[in-house]
Structures are given as structure tokens and as C-alpha cells.
Please model this.
Amino acid sequence: MTAQTTERDCKRNGCAYYRFNVRNGMETIGLQEWDRQDEILACTEEYLGLNDVNRQIDGSVSTLMRADSNAGAGKIQLSNAENSTGKKRQL
Model:
């Protein structure tokens, strides 16, 4: 299933969908290339510094907080994601 299909299905079903994906600079780095951590970190930090990405992060946190307060009444679909920087974002 593609990201576009998942997003479309979530919108149709009324569930939240957020996708966090570093777009620029990671095209030539394969999953097995852990030794390029400095490049991965730089690309990730640049991505996380974008205003639209920060709005998405804030929106996803709000959605998760609402779902938690509703004791799971909301529909949330989480895609696989890892924090490659190892840094925590202060909210």
C-alpha cells in the first residue's frame, strides 16, 4: 500500500494520518548504510526544522493526546517511523 493510498483511505474513514519522511538528501543513502550517520543526522535535523513539518508534528501530538484522553475512542493509524537523531522534541 502506498502512502497516498493510506492517506486517502484514512481521510475517507475519518482517521488521522501523518507521515514523516525526510525528503531531501537521503535519496542516495541505503538502509544498510548506518556508517553515514552524520549525513543522516544533518538531513533529519534540516527536515525537522521546516515549519510545515513542525505543524504536522504538533498536529500529530494533539491527535494522540485527544485519543489518549478519549481512551482510544478516536481512530489513529501510525506508520513506521524512527527518530534517527536520538533527540527528543520538547512539547
Observations:
- Residues 3-69 form one domain.
- Residues 79-91 have pLDDT under 50 and may be disordered.
- The radius of gyration is 15 Å.
- The helical segments are 3-13, 37-48, 51-69.
